[in-house]
Request: fold
Amino acid sequence: MTDSPTSRRRVRSPAQRTTDASTRSRDERRAQQTWVDGAEPALPVRTTRPEHVVFHLGPTNSGKTYESLQALAAAGSGVYAAPLRQLAHEAYAKLSAQLPPGTVGLSTGEEEIDPHAPIVCCTVEKAPPRGEMLVLDESHWVADPDRGHHWARLLLTGEYREMHLISAAEALLLLKPLVADAEQVVVVNHKRLSRLDVLPAPVKPSQVREQTLVVAFSRKTVYAVAAQLDPHRRGKVGVLYGALPPATRRDVIARFTRGELEVLVTTDVIGHGINVPATTVLFAETQKFDGTEMRPLRTWEAAQIAGRAGRYGLTGHGQVGVLGGIAGLKPFASLVAAGAAVARGDVMSDLPNRKPRLRPELDDLGAFEAVDLPEALTRWSMWARTATKTEAMVPDDVSGLVLRVHALLPMLRGPLATDLWTVWRLINLAIDHDPPRKVRWLALARAALQHEAGLAVSRELVLPAVPRSSTVQDYEQAAAQAREAQTLLRSFPGVAGLTSADAAEVEERCANKITELLPEAISLSTAARCTGCGTGIAPWFTTCRDCGTRPSGRPSSDRRPPRAGAGRSQAPSSSGSSAGGRGAGGRKPRKSDVGAGGRQDPQAHDRADRGRGSDAGPPRSDSARPKHRRRGRSAGGPTGAR
Reply:
C-alpha cells in the first residue's frame, strides 16, 4: 500500500522545534567565543553625530528632491547620492546650471567630472564617508536586498553635519532608527503639486497621444508594444529599458524631452525619480518578473511609475490608465487606480517592511588568508544574528560572497596565489555572478590575478571589440561587457594594458550604434507569431498552446481553429525583425524553450532588465517562490506565472 502524501510529510513536534531553537542559540553563543582576542567585530558607529537630520516625505512629484537640492546649493558643500546614474546626472545638471563653474562634480564610477568639487553628485556606492551635507535620494532603497547595505552603512556611519533624507512616508520607520543619534530630527511632509487623474477606459494603440509613457516589464514586451504603436506615430516612438547603455538612455530621454519622440515605451526604469515631460502614463501590463516569480505590481511600484505623469513645471495635470489592444497583455485597471491613489498621497502604499541589512567589511572577519574567508564569513554571519537582535537591522546574506570565494580558490595556486585584499576586492566586484554571467566574472577575475602575477593577459578577454554590422542586442551585450571591464579596471588598472577610459570608449561606440539602430529596430518589429502555425501570441511565448502540446510529427494543418481573441504575439529579435518560423514538420519545442502549453520560462529571458550595480532595479518582493496552478485554455495567456 502506497503512503499518502500526508503520511509521508515530515512534521516536527513542538519538542523538536524547541531543540532546534536551542541548538541554533548554542551555535550562536559559540560563535561569539570563537574570535581571536581583540579581533571581535563591532556594529558600525560614527564618531561625530549629525547635528541636523531632515526627512522629506511624500508621494511622487511633491518637490522633495527640489527642496533638498536647494538646501545643498545654499550650503555650498556636500553630497547628493542616488541609486541611479541617471538621477546623479540630473542633479549634476540642475546644480551646475545655478552655481559657478567648478562648484559641482559628478562621480558615478562610470564617469568622473571634478570628483573633488565642493558639491558632488554620485551614486550611493561612491558617496564619501563624511562631509558638510548629505542629500540621500530614494532613501527607501535601504530595504533593497542586493544594494541596501550601502544605504545602511552610509546612514549608520556617515559623518555629515546635516542630512536630508528623501523618501516615501512609509519608509520613515525603517530610516529613523539609523539616525537616532542626531541632535535634531525634523520631518517635512510634502503633498503632490499637480493633479493625477485615472482614465475611465483602456486606450487603444491608435488613441495614444503625444507626451505619453507606455510601461511594460521586459525587453521583448517593450519592443512588441512599440511595434504596435509605431504605425500610428511613424518614427516618433522610442524605447527605454535596463539593457541599454546609460549614454543611450540619456539620449532617448533627451529626445523625448525635446519632443523628437512623442511616445516612449519603457520598463520601470522610468519610475525611479527620472523627470520627463509626460502628460500620460499607460500600463501595457501590470505584472512583472522580479527575479524570483511573476507577480502583480505592488501599489508602491505602480505609484512610482504613475507619478511620472504631470510633472510640476514640465507639463500640466497628469493622467494614468491602461493600454488595450495588445495581444496577450491584460493590464488590470484596478491596480493602476490603486497606484494612482498612492501617487497622489491619498492612501499609504504597501512598501515592504524590510529591515536594513548590515554587511561585513574585511576588517570585521578576522581572516588572514583567502582560504580563511568562507569560514570567517560564516562565523561573522552567526555573530551578526545575535549582535543585531535588538538593533534596527539584520545581517546581510553573505552566501553569495562565500560562493565567489570557493570559485576563486582553485585558481589561487602557483603564480596566481595572491594576498587576502586582492581576493576580497575580486569577490566584491559589482559584476553579476548569477549564471550565465558567472563565466564572465570568472574570466575577469582570472585576468586580474594574471596581471597581479605579472603574466600576459589577452586584451580581447577583458574588453571584446565592438561588433560589426550587428544587431541591437549584440551591441547591448558588448556595451555590458565594456561596463564590466570598467568595473574591473577601476579596481585593477592596467590589466591587459587597458584603463577604464578604454572600456568607456568601447561602451560609447556601442551606445552610438544602438542609438543609430533603434528607430529601424522598432519600425521593423512585427507582432510576433507562433513558430508553428503563425497565430499571434504574447511576447514571452514562442508557440501557441496547441502547437506547444501537439505530439511530434503532427502536421500544422491538423490544428484546431483558434479561439476568439486567441492572439498572442512573440517579441521581435534584438534587431527588430520577427523571430524565425517553424513550418509543418519543424522541430518540437525543447523543454528548455517552452513548458506545458508552449509557455516559456520567464527566467530565461530579459535577465539584463533585472540590473545590477548602480542601475539595479527596485527592491524585490518578500513573496515566496512561484506557485503554479493549472490555467484554463483561454488563449489570452495566464494572469499569474508566465
Summary: The longest strand covers residues 159-167. Residues 411-522 form one domain.
